[in-house]
């Protein structure tokens, strides 16, 4: 796109943003209510508010300290706005009434009185307070300490409502207009780069589009319109959270774009024979996967379920403590050692945005590139480019991937992603340079250290690959042992054996020698009956394993999963076939371990990438006919619909996805 075309597009997008927001705010709601104890109120609560609580009557609320701030947002208007504050009572023993001083943007404004029963206070905020689209409502009061609670409690804030005049043409804050323009323009840049642009954005004299122009040229503008409609609608429906969320999205989208551009430069080096069309499609799927994940993780109301645990452990590592213990339910409450590796790796990223960025945003960015890694793995396994695209599209929106993100399994997510990268390297030729081998050894060591489950599953898979390679080689060799070891035909096996044994010994010395002793001591404590726990229900556990196994690949049926495994083993050849067999074998081994010992290592999550490749290989031959292509599209739409709905329900509605396929 030439410079003149970009300027015309920027002006057009700016006008659309202004007009769209005017219409959305004119016909949208003229106010909102924040329940301070619920999810939407938690996004607005600032410093000075304690964690949410719930009364015996089911009313949610927050206590203030002596000073507290609440950030309220809305459209820009100089007219007076209505404010309703519901105070829900006082701490026991407090003097009645308790006066709370309200301030607007730290300027004292008025006082309200809190009494023993809930009371609503209706106030008219002075004109001009919302002129910039936001203001801070401050609470200042005396406090009471109610033992054994050590907190100084001020007033109890239940709800806050803000309303502005109806039937007016209003605009959101300028930062929102700039952010929305930036998001739409960024997409158009990505669309042109990935080849899904419409040519009329280019200068007229260079545009030559006939009636047979490809429909793909419409994808970019259509998606831009959908993005614009989504932004305008969200601004009108949720003005209290629109500005921080959309600004985060712009920053996250820029990072995602740079990541996709970077890997786009790397892919031709990894797969030189890959067509440019397939590269663009894989990058487009990866970009979509990244954005969908960022839409949820960057939402101000979102926090990974286990974030508080990882945040606590991250803080311990930051303070210099590398020996961390926990008593997870997966191990029957026995004491286990938590690996500090993931927190050490993520620590430099805390300089950019604190622990939340390190523990939520960075793992999301890594996991979002999984479709590209899976697509490249399919190609390394000798599958067609179409199979690689279908496999990438399947895993991009598979529900189990979103479940792991929601629950915040940081070590598992990063460990799984690194394991896929290592398997991608394993499926190719072993680098001959010593430096490259050291880097691969470091990668393997980090993977082994990052999560015990990844170590067990990937370690077993790699061991099976090494055994299979040696058996196949020995079958075709009659040389004495010493000559076999030195034979160049064994170079690949010998190089990987040295790397993996070295990485395993390093992991054992650094962490697992102590961990093994600790876990053995836990086993010696006896069964749950011996330690006072209730005896397990075998039928219930087997039923849970069956339900979890089905949920791991939903909406893909287990019969299709098994057929995909078999078809992929049949279609692959030589070393690729042995890697696939070892991958499947490792998952089956730990499924049997689960059935025998009722201790689950996350074999479903470990095998999900191979499941997508296998089903893609099974479906791809159907693309020769239009009914077959319809089946493939139906499968992709079904998977994408299930994944997107699960993610939307978890983020917007607060519905927890089941963790059964990941752990029990």
Key terms:
4-stranded antiparallel sheet; globular; alpha+beta; single chain; 6-stranded antiparallel sheet; 14 strands
Please provide a written account of the structure.
By secondary structure, the protein is of the alpha+beta class. The chain has helices spanning 3-27, 39-44, 174-193, 219-237, 239-270, 276-297, 307-318, 341-346, 350-368, 370-380, 385-396, 399-407, 410-426, 434-450, 452-475, 481-486, 491-524, 538-552, 558-571, 574-597, 603-619, 626-652, and strands at residues 31-35, 53-54, 60-63, 67-73, 81-87, 98-104, 107-114, 119-125, 134-140, 144-145, 152-153, 156-163, 324-326, 336-338. Strands 1, 2, 3, 5, 8 and 12 form a 6-stranded antiparallel sheet that branches. A 4-stranded antiparallel sheet has the order 4-9-6-7. It has a two-stranded antiparallel ribbon with strand order 10-11. The longest helix is centred in the last third of the chain and has 34 residues, at 491-524. The protein is globular and about 95 Å long. Residues 198-213 and 527-532 have low confidence and may be disordered.
């Amino acid at each position: 796109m030439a410079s003149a075309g970009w300027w015309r597009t920027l002006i057009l997008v700016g006008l659309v943003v202004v007009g769209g927001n005017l219409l959305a705010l004119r016909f949208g709601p003229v106010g909102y209510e924040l329940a301070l104890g619920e999810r939407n109120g938690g996004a607005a609560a600032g410093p000075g508010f304690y964690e949410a609580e719930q009364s015996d009557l089911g009313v949610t609320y927050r206590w203030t300290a002596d000073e507290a701030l609440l950030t309220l947002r809305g459209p820009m208007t100089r007219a007076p706005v209505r404010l309703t504050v519901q105070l829900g009572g006082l701490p026991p023993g407090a003097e009645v009434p308790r006066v709370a001083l309200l301030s607007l943007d730290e300027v004292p404004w008025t006082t309200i009185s809190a009494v023993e029963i809930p009371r609503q206070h209706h106030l008219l905020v002075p004109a001009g307070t919302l002129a910039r689209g936001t203001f801070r409502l401050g609470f200042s009061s005396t406090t009471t300490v109610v033992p054994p609670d050590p907190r100084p409690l001020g007033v109890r804030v239940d709800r806050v409502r803000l309303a502005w005049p109806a039937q007016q043409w209003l605009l959101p804050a300028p930062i929102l207009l700039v952010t929305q323009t930036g998001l739409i323009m960024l997409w158009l840049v990505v669309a042109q780069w990935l080849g899904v642009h419409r040519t009329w954005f280019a200068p007229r004299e260079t545009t030559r589009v006939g009636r047979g122009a490809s429909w793909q040229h419409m994808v970019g503008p259509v998606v831009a319109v959908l993005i614009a409609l989504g932004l305008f609608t969200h601004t009108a429906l949720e003005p209290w959270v629109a500005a921080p969320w959309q600004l985060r999205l712009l920053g996250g989208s820029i990072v995602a774009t740079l990541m996709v551009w970077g890997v786009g430069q790397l892919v031709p080096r990894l797969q030189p024979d890959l067509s440019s069309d397939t590269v663009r499609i894989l990058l487009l799927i990866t970009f979509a996967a990244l954005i969908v994940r960022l839409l949820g993780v960057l939402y101000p109301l979102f926090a990974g379920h286990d974030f508080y645990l990882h945040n606590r452990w991250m803080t311990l590592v930051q303070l210099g403590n590398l020996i961390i213990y926990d008593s997870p339910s997966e191990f029957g409450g026995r004491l286990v050692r938590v690996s500090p590796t993931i927190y050490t790796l993520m620590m430099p990223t805390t300089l950019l945005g604190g622990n939340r960025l390190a523990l939520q945003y960075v793992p999301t960015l890594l996991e979002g590139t999984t479709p590209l890694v899976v697509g490249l793995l399919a190609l390394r396994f000798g599958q067609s480019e179409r199979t690689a695209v279908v496999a990438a599209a399947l895993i991009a929106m598979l529900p189990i991937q979103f479940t792991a993100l929601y629950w915040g399994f940081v070590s598992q997510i990063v460990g799984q992603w690194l394991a896929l990268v290592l398997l991608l390297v394993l499926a190719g030729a072993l680098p001959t340079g010593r430096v490259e081998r050291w880097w691969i050894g470091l990668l393997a060591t980090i993977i082994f250290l990052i999560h015990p489950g990844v170590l067990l599953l990937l370690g077993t898979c790699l061991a099976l690959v090494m055994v299979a390679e040696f058996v196949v080689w020995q079958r075709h060799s009659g040389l004495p042992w010493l000559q076999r070891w030195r034979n160049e035909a064994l170079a690949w096996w010998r190089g990987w054996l040295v790397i993996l044994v070295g990485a395993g010994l390093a992991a054992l010395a650094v962490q697992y020698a102590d961990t093994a002793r600790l876990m053995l001591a836990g086993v010696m404590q006896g069964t749950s009956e011996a330690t006072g726990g209730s005896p397990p229900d075998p039928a219930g556990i087997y039923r849970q394993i069956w339900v979890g196994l089905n949920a791991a690949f939903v909406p893909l049926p287990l019969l299709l999963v098994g057929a995909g495994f078999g078809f992929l083993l049949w279609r692959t050849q030589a070393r690729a076939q042995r890697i696939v067999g070892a991958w499947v074998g490792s998952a089956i081994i730990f499924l049997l371990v689960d059935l025998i010992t009722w201790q689950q290592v996350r074999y479903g999550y470990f095998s999900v990438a191979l499941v997508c490749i296998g089903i893609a290989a099974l479906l791809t031959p159907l693309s020769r006919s239009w009914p077959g292509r319809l089946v493939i599209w139906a499968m992709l739409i079904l998977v994408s619909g299930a994944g997107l709905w699960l993610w939307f329900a978890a983020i917007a509605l607060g519905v927890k996805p089941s963790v059964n396929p990941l752990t029990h």
